[in-house]
C-alpha cells in the first residue's frame, strides 16, 4: 500500500510512462521455457534444494535408528540441519554477490559450483560417519551449510537468466527444487 512495487517503481506509474513490460503471460512463459539456462539452473537447484527437503524428511529417523537415541533427542539433533537456513542461505547469496564484483558471472558460477561440490563431499562424509554421533552432527551441520549456501548462490544467478521473464524463470527454478525432492525420494526411499 505504501511501498514500491519493485526496484523500478510503482506498477501503475511505470504503465503510465510506458516503461513496464507489456508482454502477456504466455509470451513470458515461452521466453523462459525456451531458454536452456532456465532448465539447467532448475535442475541444479533440484540437486540442491531437492536434497535439502529429502534430508529434512529423513534425518531424524537416521539419528534414531543408527544411534538408538530417543525420538525427541533425534529431532533436536536433526533440527541442526534446518537451523542452518537462518544464516547460510544468505551467506551463499552474499558470496555470489562478492565474487561477481571481481569476476562477474564466472565468479557467481564458481561460488555455486564450489558450494555444490562441498555439499556432495559432506553428504558422503555424513553417510560414512555412522560410528560417531559427534562426527555425524558435525558433518550434518557442514553439509547443511553448503546446501543452504548453494541455494542462496543459485538465486544469485537467477536474475541474469532473463530480465524480461524473471518471475517465470524464478518459478521454474523453485519448482525444480520441489521436483528434485520428489525424484530423490523416489530414487532412494522407494517402498
UniProtKB/TrEMBL annotation:
- Membrane-topology annotation of the record: Multi-pass membrane protein
Q: According to its record, what are the GO cellular component terms?
A: membrane
Q: Which family does it belong to?
A: Belongs to the major facilitator superfamily. Nitrate/nitrite porter (TC 2.A.1.8) family.
Keyword Transmembrane on entry: yes
Q: Name one GO molecular function term.
A: nitrate transmembrane transporter activity
What keywords are annotated for this sequence in UniProt? Membrane, Nitrate assimilation, Transmembrane, Transmembrane helix
Compartments where found: Membrane
Q: Which organism is it from?
A: Mesostigma viride (Green alga)
Record bears the keyword Membrane? yes
What name goes with this protein?
Answer: Nitrate transporter
Q: Which superkingdom heads the taxonomic lineage of this protein's source?
A: Eukaryota
- Provide a GO biological process annotation: nitrate assimilation
InterPro entries, sorted: MFS, MFS_trans_sf, NO3_transporter
**Membrane spanning residue stretches:** 39-60, 72-88, 109-127, 133-158, 165-188
Amino acid at each position: 500500500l505504501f511501498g514500491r512495487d519493485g526496484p523500478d517503481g510503482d506498477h501503475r506509474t511505470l504503465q503510465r510512462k510506458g516503461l513496464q513490460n507489456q508482454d502477456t503471460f504466455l509470451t513470458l512463459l515461452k521466453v523462459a521455457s525456451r531458454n536452456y539456462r532456465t532448465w539447467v539452473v532448475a535442475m541444479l537447484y533440484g540437486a540442491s534444494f531437492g536434497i535439502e527437503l529429502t534430508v529434512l524428511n529423513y534425518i531424524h529417523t537416521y539419528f534414531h535408528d543408527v544411534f538408538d537415541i530417543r525420538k525427541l533427542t533425534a529431532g533436536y539433533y536433526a533440527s541442526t540441519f534446518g537451523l542452518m537456513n537462518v544464516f547460510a542461505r544468505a551467506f551463499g547469496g552474499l558470496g555470489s554477490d562478492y565474487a561477481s564484483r571481481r569476476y562477474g558471472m564466472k565468479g557467481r558460477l564458481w561460488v555455486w559450483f564450489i558450494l555444490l561440490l562441498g555439499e556432495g563431499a559432506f553428504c558422503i562424509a555424513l553417510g560414512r560417519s555412522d560410528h560417531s554421533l559427534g562426527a555425524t552432527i558435525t558433518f550434518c551441520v557442514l553439509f547443511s551449510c553448503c546446501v543452504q549456501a548453494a541455494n542462496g548462490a543459485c538465486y544469485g544467478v537467477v536474475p541474469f537468466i532473463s530480465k524480461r521473464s524473471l518471475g517465470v524463470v524464478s518459478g521454474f527454478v523453485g519448482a525444480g527444487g520441489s521436483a528434485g525432492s520428489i525424484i530423490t525420494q523416489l530414487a532412494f526411499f522407494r517402498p
